[in-house]
Amino acid sequence: MSFEGLSKESTDKRRTLLESIYLWEVVKGLAVTGRHLIHNIFHTGDMPTMQYPEEKRVYSERFRGRHRLMQREDGTPRCVACQMCSTYCPADCIHITAAESPDPAIEKYPAIFDIDLLRCVYCGLCEEACPCDAIRLDTGIYEIAADSREKFVVDKEFLLHNRTDGTR
Ligand code: SF4
Ligand code: SF4
């Protein structure tokens, strides 16, 4: 059938009076919605929805989740503030201020280590670039929420203690 034919067919179709005032169509639409509502109330097991937060989605093992900073045995950060991660980060969301370490065996430590989680694209390049295995994206945490933009910038203490309560 040609396009022209289709177009003519649709133009020729006359609306009935009931269709023209839409009332009957609205009633039919409400009936469909009501039918689904009643079905869903009595057949909750069939619904493709997840009862979050009681039910949590299981992500694949490859899913990374939010970052954490690794600690040495004495609780200090394993990070030596070399800036490799921030240099490689494509989103420019890692900000480190290096300071001289009180431990003569270690040259530097991060006095400040912030990550802006709103800019991060969770690519994992920071983890790959780190020569000290000091930063990992293996927490599996995907529930990242806060009520202001500033709270998505997580600091060293937050990352070291791997808090699980959203951002802060
Ligand atoms: S995961 Fe990627 S975007 Fe996020 S901080 Fe690391 S390097 Fe940057
Ligand atoms: S986390 Fe790793 S790559 Fe980043 S500054 Fe620290 S030691 Fe360097």
Low-pLDDT stretches:
1-5
DSSP strand tally = 5
> How would you name the oligomeric state of the polypeptide chains in this document?
single chain
- Main sheet attributes: strand count, strand direction, barrel closure: 3 strands, antiparallel
> Beta fraction of the residues?
5-15%
How many whole angstroms does the radius of gyration measure?
Answer: 28 Å
Mean pLDDT: 86
CATH topology of the largest domain: Alpha-Beta Plaits
Q: Order of SSEs, N→C?
A: HHHEHEEHEEH
Salient structural properties:
single chain; 29% helix; three-stranded antiparallel beta sheet; 6 helices; Alpha-Beta Plaits; disordered N terminus; binds iron/sulfur cluster; 168 residues; alpha+beta; two-stranded antiparallel sheet
Overview of this protein structure:
The chain is of the alpha+beta class and 168 residues long. The chain folds into 2 domains: 44 residues; 93 residues, Alpha-Beta Plaits, CATH 3.30.70. It has 6 helices and 5 strands; from the N terminus they run αααβαββαββα. It has a 3-stranded antiparallel beta sheet. It has a two-stranded antiparallel ribbon with strand order 1-4. The longest helix is centred in the N-terminal third of the chain and has 20 residues. The radius of gyration is 28 Å and the shape is elongated. The termini are far apart. The structure holds iron/sulfur cluster (2 copies). One iron/sulfur cluster binds next to α5.
Which secondary structure elements does this structure contain, and how are they paired or packed?
Elements: H1 3-12, H2 17-20, H3 23-42, E1 68-69, H4 84-88, E2 94-100, E3 108-116, H5 125-129, E4 135-136, E5 153-154, H6 156-160
One iron/sulfur cluster is lined by residues 89-91, 93-94, 115, 120-126, 137.
